[in-house]
Every structure is written in C-alpha cells, then in structure tokens.
Design brief:
Structural class: alpha/beta
Strand content: 5-15%
Distance between the termini: 94 Å
Number of strands: 9
Shape: globular
Strand order of the largest sheet: 7-6-8-9
Length: 297
C-alpha cells in the first residue's frame, strides 16, 4: 500500500511539473531563418507559430514557389528547435532518465539537423537503416568518424581535404593565375564536373548576411586577401562565383571592392537562360541578365 501511495504521489508531482513546464514553454520563443535571413519564423516552446518576417527586398511575384519553400523551411526548422527545447526542458523537469528520448528518436533528431532533412524524413532514414544489416550501420558510423577525424580545410583555399593541401592546390597542372571564389566547398565539385575550369579555387565558407550576423570576419575573406598579397602579380584574374541571391550579390560587390585595388582582374559568372528551357517560362530578371550578357554568334 505504501508503495502504491508513493507512486500516486510521484505521478501527481510529475503532472504538476509538466503543467508548469507547458505554461513556461508557451511563453518561450524560438526563431529560425531560411534563405540566409530572407524569411524568419518565430514559434513558442509548444511549436505554435507566433510570427513570420519576410524581407520585402527578396519578394518576387513571379517566383511565389521559392517564397513558399523558404517559409516552410523556416517554420519547420523553428518547430524542430522548439521540439528540442521541449524535450530538453522535460528531461530537466522530470529529473530522471525514464522520459529520455529513445535511441531511435535521438538519431532522428541528429539527422534532422542536416539541410533539407525534416523530422519525418529523418525518421524514415532511421527505420530504413534499422532494416539493413548491422554491418551497413557500423560502416556508416565508421565513415562519419573518419570524416570528422581526417578531413580539414586546405590551408591555401579552404576546400576540404585529408592533407594540408587539397587535390586542386597540390596539382602542378592547375593555373595559379586564375582563382575562382565560391561560397561553399561542395560548389567546387559542381564546377569541376564541367571539366572547363583549370584554375584554382578559394572557399569562403558562406556569404555575407547582415540579418544572420555574418560579416567578413566570419568568412574566409582574410585568407583570400593574404593569398592575393603573398602571390602578388602572379594572380591575373579572380572569378567571383557566389550565388545569384541577395546575399551572394552583396558578397560579390564587397569582394570586388577589396580585390580590385590589388591589381587582379575581377569577373563574375555569366547569368542567362538555362539550357533546354522555354523563353516564355523564364522570369524577367533572368531574361534581363541574358540580354545584358549577350554575345556575338
């Protein structure tokens, strides 16, 4: 009887703590942004959307689909953070491991941190992994550990590499007089797959974003300036290959102002109508860029 009374009391205390926690979380706010700060969503600790902010300078009436995707991404990420806050506060309030997340939920939460993977997709990946042989899961874990332990930024360009220099910087056949500046390391692979570029690269690690508090100090801009200064007149051209977004354009303008006084020619990737597309379905901004960048046949 005493044990039963104790369990009832513990249940009542737990219920009281959970009620207090829910009231407190309802007043808490969690924010997240998408598109480098173009869209910002705010939710409370229970996941209810409390606010949505859209940068008016990026609203394109001809590209509503992109705006919808950004809104969904910002709201989903904010709600995911709210769930994480709820689970963490719940563990603190209960003071015991009996309400801790299962290993399945823990792995799903970790996977949902990756870009483009929401909670549902993360959970599907976990269940898919559980259906596969254990050796595959162990192999995946080993691969992740090896990447974390062995991969590091190239000391010259910032691209990811197992050694001090990446394969491009270590290749004597690459043209050191031509440097292509990209935002992220994976964009190096996109350009390399074309087989047209034979110069070297420099990875910024992101783009300028005032709304997200990302300035030149948070990017690999200093490394680029030091590289241009140390290599002197050997660098003839710097191609600024940042994305064609508001942040990408701001980053490109900033880099041009920094690089041009040093002497190299500063160019920007051409923009125009995608191969295989119909002119009637192309947005006006892209057509205008294509007209401006037209060339002799």
């Amino acid at each position: 009887m005493n044990n039963l009374q104790q369990l009832i009391q513990m249940g009542q205390q737990l219920q009281s703590k959970v009620s207090e926690l829910q009231e407190r979380l309802e007043a808490e706010e969690v924010s997240s942004s998408a598109g480098g700060g173009m869209v910002k969503a705010t939710v409370n600790g229970k996941g209810t959307v409390k606010g949505l902010t859209i940068d008016p300078t990026v609203v394109d009436p001809e590209d509503v689909e992109m705006l919808e995707d950004l809104v969904l991404a910002a709201v989903s990420e904010a709600q995911s953070r709210a769930r994480g806050l709820y689970e963490e506060e719940m563990r603190k309030a209960t003071g015991g491991p009996h309400l801790a997340m299962s290993v399945i939920e823990q792995l799903a939460q970790e996977l949902s941190r990756f870009p483009g993977i929401g909670p549902k997709t993360a959970l599907r990946l976990v269940y898919h992994l559980m259906k596969r042989p254990k050796e595959e899961a162990h192999g995946l874990a080993r691969a992740i550990r090896e990447v974390a332990d062995k991969i590091k930024p190239c000391r010259r360009c910032g691209n990811f590499s197992e050694g001090d220099l990446c394969d491009v910087c270590a290749n004597p056949r690459r043209d050191p007089s031509l440097i292509c500046v990209v935002e992220e390391a994976y964009e190096v692979g996109a350009i390399e797959r074309t087989g047209e570029f034979q110069g070297q690269y420099h990875v910024l690690g992101g783009h300028l974003s005032r709304l997200d508090g990302i300035g030149p100090e948070q990017l690999n801009v200093r490394g680029l300036m030091e590289r241009l200064d140390s290599e002197g007149s050997s660098v003839q051209e710097v191609i600024v290959a940042t994305n064609a977004s508001v942040e990408g354009e701001a980053t490109a303008v900033y880099l041009e102002n920094m690089i041009r006084p040093l002497g190299p020619r500063v160019t920007r990737l051409a923009r125009g109508i995608p191969v295989g597309s119909d002119l009637e379905y192309v947005d006006g901004t892209t057509i205008a860029e294509a007209l401006t960048g037209r060339r002799e046949m």
